[in-house]
Amino acid sequence: MPSIAEEICIGNLGSLQTLPDSFTWKLTAADSVLPPSSAVSFGAVEESIPVIDLSDSDVTTLIGNACKTWGAFQIANHGISQKLLDDIESLSKTLFDMPSERKLEAASSDKGVSGYGEPRISPFFEKKMWSEGFTIADAFYRNHFISLWPHDHTKYCGIMEEYVDEMEKLASKLLSCILGSLGVTLEDIEWAHKLEKSGTKVGRGAIRLNHYPVCPEPERAMGLAAHTDSTILTILHQSNTGGLQVFREESGWVTVEPVPGVLVVNMGDLFHILSNGKIPSVVHRAKVNHTRSRISIAYLWGGPAGDVQITPISKLIGPVEPSLYRSITWKEYLQMKYEVFDKALDAIRIVNPTN
């Protein structure tokens, strides 16, 4: 993996007039992974994931159907104020508008996650992605904020703390609905129930601020390559410029156009395992734009402590539906994802569950 110092472009991508070879992806019809019978040309099709009103009396059923069909959905009336969404987007824009040299001073280190840099999935791809990001995964981000905003760090730390608190509450609410759609509760996840009873957080959250600058040749570039999240779920706020795409077997790539005040929820690998494969972890990517830059803020609600064993929920398995995945600690799964990337779920799948 190249050192952050060698990444001469990520902080200044928007100023480039031509697409460097290192950022040029050979995107073909095969890369789009559209069904062979599809009449749609390369790109995304004209449909989108459901928008669900969280105040709807039938919200559990609606979310359950969307999860099983798409592995993703959008939410309105979620309780997050528009002011807070505007504030976190403004924080992100202020950060990414800084000179490249200043952003690199807050670069994430080999020993830590928090800080500025390229997407963490970059080592798995030959070409670079047309984006830059900043990760907040622990309290160390405060030091970065002090470096970036010597006089305003208190203001920006306050925005971040409020955003994390609100996202944690929303993620817990969504998890209850999704579990309810499967006929189970948090108590049926042994490790999660123990954590809740002890007053410990069920999931550990991280924030990823993403910036996709204007690109001279967007059809040959990739903002963020196709992947699934390792998380329970991810809640995404995107600015008013589109770029997010999710993959569905029946449809190919589907663009999720931004809707003011609406958040996107992607299901991750951890919940896919917990659900014994009933709910997919959605494959998604980000495309870039020729005339407008794009900001997105992802709240990645991850798993428990590293030594906790992850297995399908016992109530969702039985003689008719045996367990599809073997037990593995959360730390082991994350290490496996880091080593084999999109083959991690296959690596822990029980090939013949009946035996």
Q: Which consecutive residue ranges, at least 5 long each, have pLDDT under 50? A: 1-8, 33-42
Q: Determine the strand fraction and express it as a percent band.
A: 15-25%
Number of helices: 10
What does the main sheet amount to? 8 strands, mixed
Going across the biggest sheet, name each strand in turn: 2-3-11-8-13-6-5-4
Shape: globular
Radius of gyration (CA) equals: 20 Å
| Secondary-structure class | alpha+beta
The SSE order reads: HEEHEHHEEHHHEEEEEEHEEEEHH
Keywords: Dioxygenase, Iron, Metal-binding, Oxidoreductase
Family: Belongs to the iron/ascorbate-dependent oxidoreductase family. GA3OX subfamily.
Pathway: Hormone biosynthesis; Plant hormone biosynthesis; gibberellin biosynthesis
Enzyme class: oxidoreductase
Give an account of the 3D structure.
The chain has 355 residues and is an alpha+beta fold. The chain has helices spanning 29-32, 59-70, 82-96, 100-104, 141-148, 153-181, 190-197, 269-274, 330-340, 344-348, and strands spanning 44-45, 51-53, 72-76, 115-117, 132-136, 205-212, 224-227, 233-238, 244-248, 252-255, 263-267, 284-286, 294-301, 309-310, 328-329. It has an eight-stranded mixed β-sheet with strand order 2-3-11-8-13-6-5-4. Helix 5 crosses helix 6 (153-181). This is gibberellin 3beta-dioxygenase. It is an enzyme of class 1 (oxidoreductase). InterPro entries: DIOX_N (IPR026992), IPNS-like_FE2OG_OXY (IPR044861), Iron_ascorbate_oxido_reductase (IPR050231), Oxoglu/Fe-dep_dioxygenase_dom (IPR005123).
